Amino acid sequence: MTYQPHLNRRHFVASLAAGAFALGWKLPDASPGMAAAGEAAAVGIWAVVQPDDTITVRIARSEMGQGTLTGLAQLVADEMDADWKFVRAEYITPQANLASGHAWGDMATGGSRGIRGSVDYVRKGGAVARAMLISAAAKQWRVPESECVAAKSIVTHTSTGRTLRYGELAAAAALLPVPTNVTVKDPSAWTIIGQPVHRLDTEGKLTGKQVFAIDVQLPGMLNAAIAQCPVFGGKLVSFDAAKITSMPGVRHVLKVDDATVAVVADKWFQAKTALAKLLIVWNEGENAKISSPQIAEYLRTGLDTPEAGVGNAHGDAKAALAGAARKIEAVYTTPFLSHATLEPINCTARYTADVAGNRLEIWAPTQGGDGALMAAAHAAGVEPSKVAVTKLHLGGGFGRRGENDFVMQAARIAKQVPGVPVKLIWSREEDMTHGFYRPITMAKMSAALDDHGNVMALHARISGQSITAWKNPAALAANGGVDFGQFQGWGKGEFGYEAIPNVLIDHAMRNTHIPVGYWRGVNTNQNAFYMECFIDELAHAAGADPLEFRRKLMAKNPKHLDVLNACAAKAEWGKKLPDGVYRGICQNMGFGSYTAAVAEVSVSNEGALKIHRIVAATDPGHVVNPDQVRAQVEGSFVFGLSAGLYSEHTIENGRIAEGNFDSYEVMRLAAMPKVETVIVPSGGFWGGVGEPTIAVATPAVLNAVFAATGKRIRDLPLKNQDLKRT
Amino acid sequence: MITLNINGTSHQVDAPADTPLLWILREYVGLTGTKYGCGIAQCGACTVHINGIALRSCQLPAGSMAGQKITTIEGLSPDGTHPVQMAWKELEVAQCGYCQSGQIMAAAALLHQTPSPSDEDIDNAMSNICRCGTYPRIRSAIHAAAGQAAPTAGKV
Ligand code: FES
Ligand code: FES
């Protein structure tokens, strides 16, 4: 692979400036002796090398638990032939990225793109650093570069055996021209990529020392609690500040925007206590008349309408269904869900009115960086170049922290209290009732079977809310009103049942007033539940084994099939199970990776579900850190099964009815079995890891529930269903 | 003034007696390792030890804590080497880490009371929420800390 630099000359100069900026960095405390060690040197733009050999890899994406920080550092470190024990990681700042013309690429972290979306340029960045270090050594020894090799942070002159450490070379290397032509390694030469190294961000998470954004403490800081209009789309009319201004610690009662009030106090608990006493008049508006039954009714009108955007089709499914020997139909539903990151939504801001221009500082748990900076600048009316954002590790993101609503609120509050840092924290109730929810959808699944149980046609009709319509109407219009994200997992190259001769996948858009957004796994979650449970229904109708039945339908999708087979083999599909234990199986493809799962469950006479075993297989192409892939697969089952078994938001009078974990239930440890992960990387591509497995969690378990009980669960979550034997 | 014994140190705190211990720790004493997750005893992110027992500090009025021995994650061990922390590190339990202070405090109290817990003991004691889904590793790490099983995650 030959590197053609994506930085043009102008960018290159800018990135050098950014590198120089990095010299003044505060480096991690976990690097003993560094202060005494002298100057750090940026070799290229991705790595800073200290005289004591410490290497700080710059990270643009956000760490929210998914392990991207460590994985990205592995990519750079391997290509620069670093010794992993010297490697640390540190965020570049959004302002440095902005000032450099986005030399570090996109900071947005979502869509399981943290690795696969940056792999090309960060690996090249590591290779650039290696080339510069080798070049510096060759110059010092006055020998050709071709006689020098690098390994484990040491350059060796092969014929004489002389060596120089990266720490000794970095200062000279940093001054060399950045090579325009470097080669990244063949996967066979990787020494750090593919290894289950420990995460770089663990220590502080076990001792309470990790500072999350909610933990930020600044001199003179005040704390804000907010109330937003309970009904989405409603407006703030008035509030009666006088009654609470004398309460302990209260400093300000502020209008934040046309639907939000904040109480600012010395302590957050004082602000929250006072806010609870604040009389606020809202104009809830027309949306207050909408509740879940009306929304369900509205979505049902989309199940049969001829007006629908087509996501994938071949053959003539409608005709084949009309003339079918046997037609099978089922309607499936999924509810709104909130992200419920365990760290509640928060952001700290300080606005400084300055003769030289107003400034804004932000401390944020953001899945972006660039976006948070621009949003904050816009909200406070400050030049983007005058905004400084400090990113902190996120206490969960799941898509929620790609939104900037809370950053803008913090900026607006800070602007009203110039010179004073203010930390905004949302209560859990505010968090759950003002999210960007996983959209509500339904699906009508129809299939034609011939006399031998072959699937002759499949029509998957989704009816429900579109994320693109909410977030980006212009993009929707540009696609002729079709939201292609809606078909995630079912697009060309994703859909695993191409052997079915007639297929139609379409979507009737039914939007509500509830804000929607990307929820970890996004539309693959609902779609895989619809498809994989329905395929199970068809297997049952055809009297076929669910694995054998799928194998036939996947004849044209060998990569999907390999993963399904790997999963089935590990799970010993077909082997006799203990009495009362039953299996379910499913597969999916999304975010660039192939996944499959087998679950083993039992259901008591009283209807209590116990999951005994989960086996999961994934083919993400290349694997950066197998232990972190396993961690993401395990976590994906907890996240997916929370949605499948427990969680649900309902709408009452225009607002979210469930405000905390007592009513919005999530999975707990006792319900969670061991997950046996089979990683089958087929190489040649980079797929996502944080999201693809979530989709297979629920259908695997619910297909097993059907095997155990004969009850087909078509409406999530399972907690609303009765599995009692009658 | 409330006098609190936190991690072996006496602290004088000027706060209303009904302020939850969670917010006293975070906002008056500056110990932010103890986390807010729900405020209604559901999530366990705020778990601390009161006289060695794991309790949810969002539900403990500060005024009732005088004379009690309060231990937070910062005081669990001087250098992060409590067996639970060591097992957590070895098995790479933490993802985002936000729940882990509470999980570790709950696990440490469990092992103190039940040095060799069964899976059922773990089920009963470990009801804290982890949204990242680290439950399988929490279970393995508790067994590992109890000396019942060797850590299984491969490491370089
Ligand atoms: S914050 Fe105390 S249990 Fe959730
Ligand atoms: S590690 Fe993120 S909530 Fe548990």
Summarize the structure.
The complex is a heterodimer of chains A (726) and B (156). Chain A is α+β, with helices and mostly antiparallel strands and 726 residues long.
Textual characterization of the structure:
The complex is a heterodimer of chains A (726) and B (156). By secondary structure, chain A is α+β, with helices and mostly antiparallel strands. Chain A has three domains: 2-207, Aldehyde oxidase/xanthine dehydrogenase, molybdopterin binding domain (Aldehyde Oxidoreductase, domain 4, 2-Layer Sandwich), CATH 3.30.365.10; 213-285 and 345-425, Aldehyde Oxidoreductase, domain 4 (2-Layer Sandwich); 292-337 and 437-720, 2-Layer Sandwich (Aldehyde Oxidoreductase, domain 4). In chain A, the strands form seven sheets. In chain A, strands 10-11-8-18-15-16-17 form a seven-stranded mixed beta sheet. In chain A, strands 13-21-20-19-14 form a five-stranded mixed beta sheet. In chain A, a hairpin with a 5-residue loop joins strand 2 and strand 3. In chain A, 58% of the residues are buried. Chain B is an alpha+beta fold and 156 residues long. Chain B is built from five helices and five strands; from the N terminus they run ββαβββαααα. Chain B has helices at residues 21-28, 83-90, 100-113, 119-125, 135-145, and strands at residues 2-6, 9-13, 47-50, 53-56, 69-71. In chain B, a hairpin with a 2-residue loop joins strand 3 and strand 4. In chain B, helix 2 (83-90) packs across helix 5 (135-145). The longest helix of chain B is centred in the last third of the chain and has 14 residues, at 100-113. Mean pLDDT of chain B is 94; it is low at 149-156. The chains are: A alpha+beta (726), B alpha+beta (156). Chains A and B meet through helix 6 and helix 18 of A and helix 1, helix 2, helix 3, helix 4 and helix 5 of B. One FE2/S2 (inorganic) cluster (FES) sits between chains B (94-100, 130-132, 134) and A (65, 342, 396).
